[in-house]
Amino acid sequence: MSEYRLLKTDGAAKRGEFHTVHGVIQTPVFMNVGTAAAIKGAVATTDLQEIGTQVELSNTYHLHVRPGDEIVKKMGGLHKFMNWDKPILTDSGGFQVFSLAGLRKIKEEGVTFNSHIDGRKIFMGPEESMQIQSNLGSTIAMAFDECAPSKSSRQYMQDSVDRTTRWLKRCVKEMDRLNSLPDTINKEQILFGINQGATYADIRIEHAKRIADLDLAGYAIGGLAVGETHEEMYDIIEHVVPYLPQNKPTYLMGVGTPANILEAVERGVDFFDCVYPSRNGRHGHVYTKFGKINLFNAKYECDAEPIEEGCRCPACRNYSRSYIRHLLKAKEMLGMRLCVLHNLYFYNHLMEDIRGAIDEGRYSEFKKERIELLKTYDNLNGN
């Protein structure tokens, strides 16, 4: 069974420990995104250990279509398949169903859509999503929900949220059933529910109250960072968090930039994931405490400095900006790999600094300092 221990609060910011069957997660935490059971950019799970990763996140939909969740189960589950012994969170596939599938049909039972790989017809509902995630054997499974477009009408959003609540109850029932079966890989798999409602604060609050009553292992805020402004996102977080249980993890899905994370922690969020560090790294955009830099810029051609002075990641310990820029320009895979390793290390250690600041009761001051620092290169026209 899982247990979330709230160690300290600093304003609304939370510092906790989440005990799971695959180990303890120190929160706030950034989960490194390995969509198809791999971090894009030729990063291995052995690398993840070295750069301080606590949780790896994989995608239910992508693993269902390739290689197939039944194959992963035959190989002993996702942990064994990818050689990772720490916690894994699998998202439910809901977001991909709604974002990748142009042609889809939503009914009470679930959603029918076409695979983006081979066009074959797939049906996914709460029971199917739980079955796939059970086959994967992840530590944390996400409930199947509808991630409705952020500009949906109030009526559509209300109907969608009501259906998502009914789907959540079905997820709970199905997970209980699956965890009781003799051949289930992880009989202690836990479920997080997802709050939806776009930017309708009242719909969000009502939904938060309804799902909080189900006493789940954790709660996510979904459907943000999909087109609304940062201010709208922060406003929704401020409205929703007070209605989610403080003694459970709060997960802001798909967010975001270092500044987004710093702001959301101050508002009570303690789980994050985002593709930015790996996606940006593959394009030569690397994070530093002074902001993001583009290694393709000519100014780095003869720059003997590491990406960030004092950084202990594998890239900064061994190579210069000049060399990594050369690799990127020459389309050598190593350049992409080093940038992704640096960015993930940066994110993982930003979270370490955040936890330290909350421990010391100086989070607000720390957040202001770090957000100011992040603007340095912008102010110097360094990008």
Q: Could you characterize what this model shows?
A:
This protein has 383 residues and is α/β, with parallel strands linked by helices. The chain folds into 2 domains: 3-274, Queuine tRNA-ribosyltransferase-like (TIM Barrel), CATH 3.20.20; 281-378, no CATH class. It has 16 helices and 16 strands. The strands form 4 sheets. Strands 4-5-6-10-11-12-13-14 form an 8-stranded parallel β-barrel, surrounded by 4 helices. A 3-stranded antiparallel beta sheet has the order 1-2-3. A 3-stranded antiparallel beta sheet has the order 7-8-9. The N and C termini lie far apart (47 Å).
Briefly say what this structure is.
Helix content is 43%, strand content 19%. It contains 16 helices and 16 strands.
Number of domains: 2
Q: Structural class of the secondary elements? A: alpha/beta
β-strand percent reads 15-25%
**Second rung of CATH, namely the architecture of the largest domain:** Alpha-Beta Barrel
Q: Helical content, roughly?
A: 40-55%
CATH 4th-level superfamily of the largest domain: Queuine tRNA-ribosyltransferase-like
DSSP strand tally: 16
Residue stretches low in confidence (pLDDT < 50, at least 5 long) are none
Mean pLDDT: 95
**Distance linking N and C termini:** 47 Å
Rg calculated over all Cα atoms: 21 Å
Which characteristics define this entry?
2 domains; 383 residues; 3-stranded antiparallel β-sheet; TIM Barrel; 16 helices; alpha/beta; metal-binding; 8-stranded parallel beta barrel; globular; transferase
